[in-house]
């Protein structure tokens, strides 16, 4: 994908580590200038920015708490101001908490679950709404989901699954809304990987791996490659699609 994204500006939310950082690298390798967001890991975000600049592109890190939907317009404005526009939006930032707790668990932290819904669902919607106003024609939106949205498989994942499943419908709707401008809108359902998010407890993780066709945890770069493809000109006729990169979890 050398230079396929030359002259493009991309925003990768949650780009300071894991899949977000891997995606930022893949887009930079294709020539895009990249903005990443972070919440509290400023040092890690700065390291990613230095790495991207070393690849020959412009890069910035912007602090943003995605759970606060009122911050979305300013985030998009900062990207446009600092990098000169916006062509590609990668909605990667998400949190995963309380996995393994069933909905009838009296000790579940409901406030934490509500924050997860705000971060993973309404926060993503707010950023898409703000970005849609400034995305240049023929732009790209790729939202990162999870195979759990399609096939939960084990107890204790209801709230996390709901945040990702809701984005499937939103992605398909926005694909129709923005198609007249040549903007494609797709989703990549990621599988098990080491990203820095809270992992499932060992028993849940073992059960999930046993249900995969490819029985291993993936590397972030593997899914980042799929994201970069959907962000490229090669994917100009793909929109409203949900691409699984989950090792066969949903097969």
UniProtKB/TrEMBL annotation:
The keyword Transmembrane does not apply. The keyword Magnesium does not apply. It holds the Pfam family adh_short_C2. InterPro entries: NAD(P)-bd_dom_sf, SDR_fam. Signal peptide: none annotated. Transmembrane segments: none annotated. GO terms for molecular function: oxidoreductase activity. SUPFAM superfamilies: NAD(P)-binding Rossmann-fold domains. It comes from the Bacteria. Keywords: Oxidoreductase. Belongs to the short-chain dehydrogenases/reductases (SDR) family. PANTHER family: OXIDOREDUCTASE, SHORT-CHAIN DEHYDROGENASE/REDUCTASE FAMILY (AFU_ORTHOLOGUE AFUA_5G02870), SHORT-CHAIN DEHYDROGENASE_REDUCTASE FAMILY PROTEIN. This is NAD(P)-dependent dehydrogenase (Short-subunit alcohol dehydrogenase family). The lineage of its organism: Bacteria, Bacillati, Actinomycetota, Actinomycetes, Micromonosporales.
